Amino acid sequence: MYHFFNKKSMNSKKNYIISILLAISFVFANAQQGGNNPQRGLSESETLQQREDVQNRSMTREEAEQMIKESIRQTVDKMAELLSLTSDQATKIYAIEVELNNIRSEKIGKVMSDFAAQQKITKEMIVLGEEKYKTVLTADQFSKLQEYNRPVLNFLNRFNP
Fold first, then answer.
1. Between residues 151 and 13, which one has the greater pLDDT?
2. Per-residue DSSP letters for 69-115?
């Protein structure tokens, strides 16, 4: 019985008791808020049904197109920040990105289940993009872009030499 009260083990026991009390308080706080109580709002089955509906809902074509446009805009904004693009360059790069995205979508749509083929297509798109960007960017901007793309290409080269 003496070892239960010695000073060395008292600190660890205090911490253990405090953590148990905290856990109990969290449980009671959740119970007071109602948890999944039907009086609070939705029953558990209704909550699960809502989760299933969200997971099973397909994206509409308009939502997908909007998401793609937003992604392209973010890419161009990142490039503008990285390369200090002029507004004319940014407009041209946006057009190139739209074109590359259309090509990428068409090619990847044909090989959806083949991950290695998708990586190969991604690598091709980076190289094709660099060729197209070369006509728009200055030499300094282009070298910065190649430096930025190098880690991605090195990663893809490990799988598709």
1. 151
2. HHHHHHHHHHHHHHHT--HHHHHHHHHHHHHHHHHHHHHHHHTTT-H
DSSP 145: H
The answer, yes or no, to whether residue 113 has pLDDT greater than 60, is yes
Q: Where are the domains of the chain?
A: 61-159
* Amino acid at residue number 66: Q
In the block, tokens 């709002």 appear at: 41
pTM, rounded to two decimals: 0.58
Contacts 24+ apart (CB under 8 A), 146-149: 148/82
Contacts of 36 (CB under 8 A, 6+ apart): 42, 43, 44, 47
